[in-house]
Amino acid sequence: MADARQDTMHSKAPLLEVSGLVAGYGGASILNGVSFRLEAGQSLALLGRNGAGKSTLIASILGLTERHAGRVLLAGVDVTNLRPDQRATHAVGAVGWVPQERNIFKSLTVEENLTAIARTGARPGPWTVARVFQLFPQLEGRRGNLGSQLSGGEQQLLAIGRALMLNPALLLLDEPLEGLAPLIAAQVLDVVRKLIKDEGLSAIVVEQHARKVLEITDQAIILERGSIVHAASSIDLLHRPEELDAHLGVGGR
Amino acid sequence: MKASARAALQAASRWRALEFAFWLVPVAAYFLFPRHYLLLNEMAIFALFALSLDLILGYAGIISLGHAAFFGFGAYAAALFAKHIHPDPLLGLAATAAGAALFGLVSSVLILRGTDLTRLMVTLGIALITYEVAAKMAWLTGGTDGLQGVVVGPLLGRFDFDMSGRTAYLYSLATLFVLFLIARRVVHSPFGMGLKAIRDNRLRAAAIGIPVNRRLAAVNTLAATMAGMAGALLSQSTSFASLDVLAFHRSAEALLVLVIGGTGWLYGGPIGAVVFTLLHDRLAALTPQYWQFWVGAILAGLVLIGRERMRLIVRPWRWFKAKKVGE
């Protein structure tokens, strides 16, 4: 606890600090002591093979898993004991989550998906329904459609839009390109790049397409069996395919 | 809240012509069927009870087999209030609402955890316990004999609850309408949107900042309040409360009503209640002993026919356009 108080006193606390995190499901630990920091305005690529613990790490930042040890700090504030909804709307660092498999609310309309959080005490900020539609024009024409009536790509855009409605300080994207046709994937990637580069939004992006995500992020972490085995700047990693190959077996991608 | 979000919600909550037409029906019924006020009163009370169940089932996805616990609680509370504290019906209704809300809030703790199946068991358990408590506390509730000697004062100090049921029907209908307006307002608010999000996916709802447990407790409290008020309407208009108000069949019938009318659009409860009460009344007149058999047969038939074909049956002008349904 003393550490937590000290951190809040430092004005330059990182946006996100994860330290010694051991977490998993049903008594089993998937993460075995993960520690890293993310400065405000920075973006992070989270890489690793299937089952390495990427999604678990993302979910743990939001508090959706079972924590066995370690801490999570948002802008220096210890949120380890806060519920997911409290972290998602936290005053110092709201966390927006774009879950795997585009889990939007299928029985709500596009518009309802975006307005569902309008009264949850979301932080004031630049994101409104109108601005989300501006970013994703194709959603505006389908505002009255149910989530289940959207294509995969549209669902992904809606999932990102829904997370933005929280006005997050940190955006967590879990395999945003998974299962999308190349053209649509390129569009989604471009949106993520815009959010990171133009809007200066901090983001953690989990992605199997290592190269694509390294091109738009600042730093990278490679997870293996629940531990960080490599941490570097994204550019460095991009120019060292042998490193990618060693850890992911996907150097050419 | 953002202006555009507010505009969207307001557009969704605008009254449609059909809704106005719907509410004209019970008013017309008042003038058309002056000899059937008792039956109409029964429909209005049942409609309110089913409406309250729709709030938790249709919007929050909480399936309950014990909703009668709140209905029965309200019926006894209103009867006891009239007997021991004050005979004024509106005072009694307000006191019942407060009591039922507290009961709903406390019982929320039990429905927050678990899945559909455990909730079925837990809600059933709450209803069974309430029933047994009412049966054992005969000194207060009259036990199996029912609570007798209840005298309800005139409504607004002027209108007596007469034998024809006229005052009772207007009283129940007005209460139903006011509570319907509240329910309608709630489900079209961001709060209601959040409930639907929770029904769709609890984890995702929490992840976008919706305090899941608090929302579920709030809607359960609201539903319990409305169910309790429905029970109060029944015991006030009959000046009587018996264990029947807590019986299992009452919870089950509310679910049946929602099966008939549909969940998640608020009108399912009222429409289903009218259909069910009419069915009950007509069939009981035809075969006093076997009406339940025919209700069961008709419900099974409804399910077999299915919603799609039902739409076709009530729209004969489309019989030739949409042949594919049967294929």
The number of helical runs of chain A is 11
- The name of the CATH superfamily of chain A reads P-loop containing nucleotide triphosphate hydrolases
Report the principal-axis shape of chain B. globular
List segments of chain B where confidence is low: pLDDT < 50 over at least 5 consecutive residues: 323-327
Question: How many extended strands of chain A?
Answer: 10
- Distance N to C terminus of chain B: 49 Å
- Uncertain segments of chain A of ≥5 residues (pLDDT<50)? 1-10
CATH architecture of chain A: 3-Layer(aba) Sandwich
Q: How many β-strands of chain B, per DSSP? A: 0
Count of distinct structural domains of chain A: 1
- Which structural class do you get from the secondary structure elements of chain B? mainly alpha
Coarse structural class of chain A: alpha/beta
Q: Choose one word for the global shape of chain A.
A: globular
Helix content of chain A: 25-40%
The largest contact between protein chains, plus residue counts on each side, is: A-B, 38 and 29 residues
| Order of strands in the sheet with most strands of chain A | 6-7-8-3-9-10
Q: What can you see in these coordinates?
A:
- The complex is a heterodimer of chains A (253) and B (327).
- Chain A is α/β, with parallel strands linked by helices and 253 residues long.
- Chain A has a single domain (40-63, 91-247), classed as Rossmann fold.
- Helix content of chain A is 34%, strand content 26%.
- Chain A is built from eleven helices and ten strands.
- Chain A has helices at 2-9, 54-62, 84-88, 110-115, 129-135, 137-140, 152-164, 182-197, 210-214, 234-238, 241-248, and strands at 16-25, 28-38, 43-48, 66-74, 77-78, 95-98, 170-174, 202-206, 219-224, 227-233.
- In chain A, the strands form two sheets. Chain A has a six-stranded mixed sheet, with helices on both faces. A four-stranded antiparallel sheet of chain A has the order 2-1-4-5, sandwiched between helices.
- In chain A, strand 9 (219-224) and strand 10 (227-233) form a beta hairpin.
- Residues 1-10 of chain A have low confidence and may be disordered.
- By secondary structure, chain B is mainly α.
- Chain B has one domain.
- Helices cover 72% and strands 0% of the residues of chain B.
- In chain B, helix 3 runs parallel beside helix 8 (166-187).
- Residues 323-327 of chain B have low confidence and may be disordered.
- The interface between A and B is medium-sized, with 38 and 29 residues.
